[in-house]
């Protein structure tokens, strides 16, 4: 709980700083608008997680608040399920145990730096809250408890008609708490 409070405090202080920055930026140049995006996520588990899970699937919403013409503060919330491998499910079923996936709500904050009008690098930190416990694993791998989350990545934001865009990014994401759940994840989103 202390980690979540600290994360939300950091986001609030950052938002205040961004608001002050936006006022100054308006005087020099018209401020870039705040952007929202809604997307689908697909993850390939790595490390210990790849022995239990074959895929992670979910959705997320993201806000980008411009701090400078090239840098935006980000906040992301979503839901992700990790599905057990067939051999793990079959072994559990053989013992009469109903196999179920692990479910998480990741909450992260960070930033995006646009190296060009289309390409960006970014990173976020936060928490992954386990809300559906899997039938296997321990700690983070089981979908139980709250884990520290970190996610560096790269991506592209392809403009569409008007001010909307398709945002596609790939990231390495790690969740750590009494074990480690890592994934290589792809997010494709509609940004408006």
What report would you give on this structure?
- About 20% of the residues lie in helices and about 55% in strands.
- The protein is α+β, with helices and mostly antiparallel strands.
- Strands 1-2-3-4-5-6-7-8 form an 8-stranded antiparallel β-barrel.
- A hairpin with a 4-residue loop joins strand 4 and strand 5.
- The longest helix has 27 residues, at about 1-30.
- The chain starts with a helix and ends with a strand.
User: Biggest sheet, in brief?
Assistant: 8 strands, antiparallel, barrel
- One letter per element, helices H and strands E, the order comes to HEEEHEEEEE
Biggest sheet: strand arrangement: 1-2-3-4-5-6-7-8
Number of helices: 2
Helical percentage: 10-25%
Distance between the termini: 32 Å
The whole-number mean of residue pLDDT values reads 83
Rg, Å, rounded = 18 Å
Give the overall form: elongated
